[in-house]
Amino acid sequence: MGKAIRIHTTGGPEVMRWEDVDPGRPGAGQVLIKHAAIGLNFIDIYHRTGLYPLPGLPAVLGMEGAGTVEAVGDGVTDWLPGDRAVCASGPPGAYATHRLVPADRLVPLPQEIAFEQAAAMMLKGMTARYLLHGCFGVQQGHTILVHAAAGGVGSIVCQWARHLGATVIGTFGSEEKAALATALGCEHPILYRKENFVERVKTITNGEGVDVVYDGVGRDTFFDSLKCLRPLGTMVSFGQASGKVPPLDIGLLATHGSLFLTRPTLLAYTHKREELLAHAQDLFEVVRQGAVKIDIRRRYPLAEAARAHGDLEAGRTMGAAILLP
User: Fold this and answer.
1) Exposed e or buried b for every residue in 145-160, given b needs 16+ CB within 10 A?
2) Of 189, 203, 264, 298, which has the fewest Cβ atoms less than 10 A away?
3) Of 300, 312, 311, whose CA–CA distance to 18 is shortest?
4) Distance between CA atoms of residues 102 and 30, nearest Å
């Protein structure tokens, strides 16, 4: 019998329960994983609140976990008990000591990547990969704007973009967060509570605007972000930490210079196994090179996941945070 954080209804952190949950034996095409570390991500909050509906309730939260294979089901030939593995592309169920995972959604974990590091970096890092290489091909000479640049995804995007040769502008809620991201490659920090980020971006870019905006904040930043783009620039809205973006008159895209707009998801970019493995390998490579460093700032017992959610929602976290079974 294992333990898991499960919800029986959607709502605030108080709906999360620490319960006995038997994952069962792996069926055909499945693998049983014993977790060593679990990732904490904003999508977990969206699932808990019902913003992103889960397939059914009760449900175990969590998209990201790293650990060891304990058993494999019929037809599974790529995995053996004892193999190191990480899963970060669904389905939900990672807030557990043990879980069943479709074998084709698991990624082999290199020996040089620790379990805690893997749990802290896979979902966020593969998100950064599709943001920088899929939604818009960031290259030497580009200038980008990253909202919440000290967060889990933002801190990786800053480092990876600098590695690619881009100039990085970031927004922050505190001087402490700005200092963290500056050390990670953000050349132009903007404290949005004290400064108008649209005006600062225009000043930094000599009135031209940025090539691309990466916005995981949503409602509070979306429309002003459009004003930060150069003509033919790209708006990437990949999250909604402040709430859903209101309905959009697409005429605004023409008004601001024939802009491009996308609302991507990791699942769409890693739907095929070869795409999943390509995203993972590119991430492993920049981490091996030292171009991207994974900064784990907080570790919570899995049983205290509700406290972790409260901290994440309140903006009290920087870098990555993980849950430990």
Assistant:
1) bbbbbbbbbbbbbbbb
2) 203
3) 300
4) 5
C-alpha span between 209 and 229 (Å, rounded): 5
Percent of the chain topping pLDDT 70: 100
The strand pair at 84-87 and 107-108 is best described as antiparallel
Query: Residue written as tokens 């000290």?
Result: 150
CA angle at residue 94 from 220 to 215, to 5 degrees?
Answer: 20
- Examine residue 274 and state whether it is found in any structural domain, yes or no: no
In the chain, the amino acid numbered 238 is F
DSSP collapsed to 3 states, 160-222: HHHHHCCEEEEEECCHHHHHHHHHCCCCEEEECCCCCHHHHHHHHCCCCCEEEEEECCCCCCH
Q: What's this model's pTM, rounded to 2 decimal places? A: 0.91
Q: What confidence tier does 161 reach under pLDDT thresholds 50, 70, 90?
A: very high
CATH number at residue 205: 3.40.50.720
SS3 assignment, position 23:
coil
Looking at the domain assignment, is residue 41 inside a domain?
A: yes
pLDDT at position 289 is 95
Residue 126 located in a structural domain: no
Residue whose pair of structure tokens reads 């309140």 in the numeric block: 314
